[in-house]
Amino acid sequence: MILVNGRVVFPDGVREGVDIVSSGGTITEVRASGGATDGDTLDLCGNYLAPGFVDVHVHGAMGHDTMEASPEAFCTICDYHASGGTTALLLTTATAPLPEIIAVLEAVRSCAPDLKQIAGVHVEGPFISRERAGAQRLEFIRNPEPAALEELLAFSDVIKRMTLAPELPGAPDAIARLCEEGIAVSAGHSNAWDEEARTGWERGMRHVTHTFNCMSSARRRGTQRVAGLLEFALSEPEIACELIADGHHVVPTLMRMLYRAKGAGGICLVTDATAGAGLRDGSSFALGGLQCVVADGACWLADKSALAGSAARMIDLVRTLVTSAGVPLAEAVSMASTNPVRAIGCKNKGTIAAGADADFTVFSPEFQVLQTFVGGEQVFPKQQR
């Protein structure tokens, strides 16, 4: 397949006059336009061609949730998010009894080979703070005891990322153990003080979950005002920050502040989409057993006391960053592709270069996704067979 007449988005800018050649699911050549056109040629008609988006924090869509632990739910989630340009994702769990989380891990292990978009699992909870639980269920929150952690680590081939609160008893040792297994540790749903966050960093924690949401910030201790997890993350260059840029979780001023603090390379866009994504306003859905509702284009707990994830797709986040926060398009796309790939060590994705997977999203100047390809195969719109 040869993709021609597109505005190709690279990390350092957008270029025209470039053809992308792929074969066998891999990009074989990035070349100047005008070369041989043997094979299928796709005219992009001046639209943008970007590397496929990678969402490392997504719970659900279209009424289905990762916690269902079924191939049907996983397929629905992948299909919906492909409409937003996502070509790889981490199915994300919620705080629940350990056997329910393990059931998800077992289901992903068995069906991931048939669903190319699944890059693994992000375990969010149960090792989180009760004070910063957000839309997570309090009754299932627990400390990261070694026995519980080892049960999960039996699936270290499936778990790519874990969110935990670094201040919990046993958390520093748990962070070190997870890093030994090659699992990216992200601090989140945390009430940590500065020194507790730093201890987590010293043990290998290099990420924070949904920055500005469900995390501690500066507060007084004695006569001093002491940093929380937020300020630690902003000040530590090695920490990569998730950002839900859906226009509901974080206002543009905070997006710009994060961009100034971390730069284009320090932010990973995530949807944190829940089962309400893709449903109409007024629709009800469940998140980890909690009743939720879609209202005003966002997902809420039923009593409207807190947001319950988002209703966004990755293209919506890129649009918001560009149009509301003034981030250059190439940098916003990197936050949705290159940076998440680096965060989870997922090889051959998140870039348009020879040798990379032929994962692409084609979108219009109005940020409407027109086509999504995974391994050179069109997954959105679905092709009739």
What is the strand and helix layout of this fold?
Blueprint: E1 2-4, E2 7-10, E3 13-15, E4 18-23, E5 26-32, E6 41-43, E7 48-51, E8 53-58, E9 60-61, E10 64-65, H1 71-82, E11 86-92, H2 98-111, E12 118-124, H3 146-153, E13 159-164, H4 171-180, E14 184-187, H5 194-202, E15 207-208, E16 219-221, E17 224-226, H6 229-235, E18 240-243, H7 252-262, E19 267-269, E20 284-287, E21 290-295, E22 298-301, H8 314-325, H9 329-336, H10 338-344, E23 360-363, E24 369-374, E25 377-380
Parallel strand pairs: 1-6, 2-7, 8-11, 11-12, 12-13, 13-14, 14-15, 15-18, 18-19
Antiparallel strand pairs: 1-4, 2-3, 4-5, 7-23, 9-10, 16-17, 20-21, 21-22, 23-24, 24-25
Structure overview:
The protein is of the alpha/beta class. It has a single domain, classed as TIM Barrel, CATH 3.20.20. 25% of the residues lie in helices and 28% in strands. The protein is built from ten helices and 25 strands. The protein has helices spanning 71-82, 98-111, 146-153, 171-180, 194-202, 229-235, 252-262, 314-325, 329-336, 338-344; strands spanning 2-4, 7-10, 13-15, 18-23, 26-32, 41-43, 48-51, 53-58, 60-61, 64-65, 86-92, 118-124, 159-164, 184-187, 207-208, 219-221, 224-226, 240-243, 267-269, 284-287, 290-295, 298-301, 360-363, 369-374, 377-380. The protein has an eight-stranded parallel β-sheet, sandwiched between helices. Helix 5 (194-202) packs across helix 6 and helix 8 (314-325) runs antiparallel to helix 9. The longest helix is centred in the first third of the chain and has 14 residues, at 98-111. It is globular, with a radius of gyration of 20 Å. The model has no long low-confidence stretch (mean pLDDT 96).
